[in-house]
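A common beginner's mistake is to predict each chain separately and then try to dock the pieces by hand. The better habit, illustrated here, is to supply every component at once so that their relative placement is modeled jointly.
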Amino acid sequence: ILNVEQSPQSLHVQEGDSTNFTCSFPSSNFYALHWYRWETAKSPEALFVMTLNGDEKKKGRISATLNTKEGYSYLYIKGSQPEDSATYLCAFTNDYKLSFGAGTTVTVRA
Amino acid sequence: EAQVTQNPRYLITVTGKKLTVTCSQNMNHEYMSWYRQDPGLGLRQIYYSMNVEVTDKGDVPEGYKVSRKEKRNFPLILESPSPNQTSLYFCASSSGQGWEQYFGPGTRLTVT
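With all components supplied together, the output reads:
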């Protein structure tokens, strides 16, 4: 079982503020790192899949960076809005399996 | 509409009574996977399939079986369910493990 850790487990952020959180994963035999957004009572939805060291991806106010040599990825939310409230999952793969972290639950207060 | 469907969405059953949860995708994806979600543990992969007739164990395969006879379908079989298999189950599909996963709506299973 691959050890994928996300921190913090949860965070609260004021509307309009920016925030970020991390995903750490094994640095050996890297293949891809996924980020998903999971709203309550819905299914996880893909945000990004990153494969190259130094990769940066952006979708609207959400962006992610990847460091495969040291085994971490950051997810950033700029100018948080209440609709950003969700659990954000990262998943690591080095062969055909996917190993997910336990997630970071973000609550945006209006 | 591109989608992954699962049935049933909710199921309450008793220990030892065999059950099957179906999963179907209409995106011609080669890679399909089953996960279970338990509080505080995140999603854990049960089984995955890289293509028709090609399946392999994920991190928590004990007590589960799968088959991939057709590209679009990937059923999850619990031959003798036990209470520790009470969980929320997700099926997902993608073009490969390095591509974004499309998740089904989830199946909430309770085994008493």
